[in-house]
Amino acid sequence: MRVAIIGGTGPFGKALARRLQSAGYDVVVGSRDADRAAKIAGELGVDGASNNDAARSAELVILATEAQAAIETARGLRRAIGTTPVLSVASDIRFSAAGVSTADEMHSVAERIRDELGAPVVAGLHSLAASNLGSAHPLHEDAFVCGDDEGAKALVLELAGRVTSGRALDAGPLSNARVLEGLTAVLVNVNRRYKAHAGIRVTGLP
Fold it and tell me: Are strands 99-102 and 93-96 parallel, antiparallel or unpaired?
């Protein structure tokens, strides 16, 4: 399956591109600057293209831009994406002296992306840190995925299961993206406090 990573030149996008390429996916990294995409793609051993061209060529589009740019990026790519399933991995978090917290928004980033597109949107991978994804070691963490379209969610669950050595877990409807995105803030606080690279494993499952 061909996967486009929009924002694939950032830390999370590059780490995910490496993992997916190693897992056998046909990966194209996208950027607003096609030359930058080509340069980074050459370093990763994958294809590179403008965001529009990457989205048009893919069977799954992953929006891996910063949360503040995700909505505008989705809006600009509406025509290129068409009805292709989209995975949102962004978390809108805020940094302050008190710590890291989620933004004061009624709807998740994934839900706001859905409202911009005519494609099914799935949310997931929020608990997987770029530093852990970029490691050469197996990723012994569980990955959570939520969405309303069962076909799109199945694609992402399969992908998540090949990215991590843990489990890919169905976390329910897209409305739960608000909780999954909040996990990013929780883990950033934990990892800063304990100087760690912690992830999440769920106990009690068969």
Answer: antiparallel
CA distance 37 to 18: 14
Tens of pLDDT, residues 154-189: 999 999 999 999 999 999 999 999 999 999 999 999
CB 84 within 8 A of CB 121: no
Count of CB atoms situated within 10 Å of the CB of 56 = 17
Q: Is residue 180 a contact partner of residue 125, using CB atoms and an 8 Å limit?
A: no
Task: Output the pLDDT for position 37.
Answer: 96
pLDDT score for 4: 98
- What is the CATH number assigned to the segment(s) 2-194? 3.40.50.720
The verdict on pTM exceeding 0.85 is: yes
16 neighbors 7 (Cβ within 8 angstroms): no
Cα separation, 128 vs 140, in Å, equals 10
Q: Which residues contact 13 (CB under 8 A, 6 or more apart)?
A: 5, 6, 7, 29, 62, 64
Q: Which stretches of the chain drop beneath a pLDDT of 70?
A: none
Contacts of 194 (CB under 8 A, 6+ apart): none
